[in-house]
């Protein structure tokens, strides 16, 4: 049996969190699932809280930081980066389950802190895109809040009434495009 890495443990913890909430991040079941012992866990972590923190950091990287980095790696204009962002977040990746689970456990101090940090990172990025499109700082922040509120509303619909949302393909793209069109409906004219 090969030794598991810290990242493999964190990834398994994030998978457990995504499917069963914070309560599912338990060392013994994870060790069994990974085909290892609790000793492997204690080689990398001082306790469950440290594992939860590592899983939350992995979630932040996968669900926010890497998406922003990918969008910023090209030379697409802000409107296209917003469209790509909306198309991606309104066609949920696997990590959307983690967002749902974390929102359900938002009263836990570690989760609350991670959610606050990620929310601010996401809002900051969306605000910056609206600023690039010519919105004043205050209007850009309001538009970002509206966009993010729409995302959170979609997460709630995924939990309570998933059949209301378009599943994939052209209908999903049209849904994202309609949201973006509403958010850009009174975009300031570009200055030459």
UniProtKB/TrEMBL annotation:
Q: Where is the HTH tetR-type domain?
A: 3-63
Coiled coil regions in record: none
Q: InterPro entries this protein is in?
A: Homeodomain-like_sf (IPR009057), HTH-type_TetR-like_transc_reg (IPR050109), HTH_TetR (IPR001647)
Q: Which UniProt keywords apply?
A: DNA-binding, Transcription, Transcription regulation
Which SUPFAM superfamilies does the record match to this protein? Homeodomain-like
**Molecular function terms from GO:** DNA-binding transcription factor activity; transcription cis-regulatory region binding
Residue intervals annotated as DNA-binding region are: 26-45
Identification of the protein by name:
AcrR family transcriptional regulator
């Amino acid at each position: 049996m090969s030794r598991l890495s810290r990242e493999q443990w964190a990834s398994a913890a994030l998978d457990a969190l995504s499917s069963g909430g914070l309560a599912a991040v338990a060392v013994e079941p994870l060790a069994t699932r990974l085909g290892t012992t609790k000793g492997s866990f204690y080689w990398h972590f001082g306790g469950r809280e440290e594992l939860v923190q590592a899983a939350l950091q992995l979630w932040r990287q996968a669900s926010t930081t890497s998406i922003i980095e990918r969008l910023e790696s090209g030379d697409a204009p802000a409107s296209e980066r917003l469209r790509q962002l909306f198309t991606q977040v309104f066609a949920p990746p696997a990590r959307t389950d983690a967002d749902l689970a974390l929102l359900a456990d938002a009263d836990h101090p570690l989760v609350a802190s991670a959610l606050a940090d990620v929310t601010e990172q996401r809002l900051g990025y969306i605000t910056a895109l609206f600023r690039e499109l010519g919105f004043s700082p205050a209007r850009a922040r309001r538009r970002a809040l509206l966009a993010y509120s729409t995302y959170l509303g979609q997460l709630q619909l995924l939990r309570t009434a998933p059949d209301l949302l378009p599943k994939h393909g052209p209908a999903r793209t049209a849904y994202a495009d309609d949201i973006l069109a509403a958010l850009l409906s009174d975009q300031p004219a570009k200055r030459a």
